[in-house]
């Protein structure tokens, strides 16, 4: 039916246009208010504690996510509301130690709680790799990888890891004894070490960061993309935003991202050409009868490189900063290493097991500076789950937030202090600590397969550094730990004065 002429003229007039726009705005506003009111007062999660803004809309969550403050904001909510808090209309955060097994653990007779699709977006990682694969394929790929991460395999990789540790020690020695200012940015050099190690163990060749004293282009793009990935993650809450955000991404960055993907395929394919019988982290994936598809292999090796490099480097930075910020603790760690070994040549994967205080320093660094400060949400999907003694309705994202869990006075005495003694058995004053709250490598069928490798790298390199050098934190890095989190820490320079050891 045609509109009457006078109505058509009215709509096309300025007054009619403004009224039409006003009507649309009014309808959208009414719909938004209705949605927010429902989320706050009538939603199945309305009985869970939390700020009303977070309950009403994802804006609170997205704001803190985009500003790199989400783990800290969630921590403040837990301090106010307790063990469980509503951080979004459809998401709950937990800090009680039991939450680890209830959310992420093995569930005999039941399937695992699936990963939250809005977090594990296809824009951030490939669905074929071990990180995002469905349960059956994840289990299969992981079994194929397990031999490469076994204790026997780790011992076989010791010479490789020691080679790159010695390269870093050699550089530090040159700086310590050189005529120029002996200040080293440990943030860069720990990353050089871990990326070179993982490049060798996964791609069959290092990135040569230690030798070139610079990041390989493949590595550089990872750091450049950290914030972008978080912005993409936020657009999952409002799909119409995605094309808008992408318009603001520099074409140069998009080009570099494509170059990195091409280089990844090139390096992954190069590893396929090596047939020297090496028993590295991906050898089993490349066997003709492995049953692992090429897309699964390509995605998995990229995940291994990033997960095995950046997180280990972050922890090494964190423990170094906290040691240098606490001279008495540093003195104990140095004394232990130097009294146990009369030669650096005697420091090995096996012998570092004697350094109990060093291990306590690493564990305490994992608590106060976890490499992953945020959390990895799961989603109840079509099920109602019992978490923390309360039923959680369908289609709810649930998570343990590392930072909030480890900094909670409900779990640890003096939670904001760096106190390695809490990990030394029955040290007085820490009897009420919930040690099982610390799960930086996660629990359950999807826990971190590289835990043993990470500990071996960190214990070996840190022991060598403390045995060989005297270290002093530069004033410019006194607030190094004041950082933002974009899934990974946005780490500034960690400037350390490196001196030859006195005794």
UniProtKB/TrEMBL annotation:
Q: Which InterPro entries match?
A: Cyt_P450, Cyt_P450_CS, Cyt_P450_E_grp-I, Cyt_P450_sf, Cytochrome_P450_monoxygenase
- Which key words are in the record? Heme, Iron, Membrane, Metal-binding, Monooxygenase, Oxidoreductase, Transmembrane, Transmembrane helix
User: What CDD domains does the record tag this protein with?
Assistant: CYP60B-like
Could you say which residues bind heme here? 448
Presence of keyword Heme: yes
| Gene3D superfamilies membership | Cytochrome P450
Question: Which Gene Ontology BP annotations are present?
Answer: aflatoxin biosynthetic process
Q: What name does the UniProt record give this protein?
A: Cytochrome P450
Protein species of origin: Aspergillus parasiticus
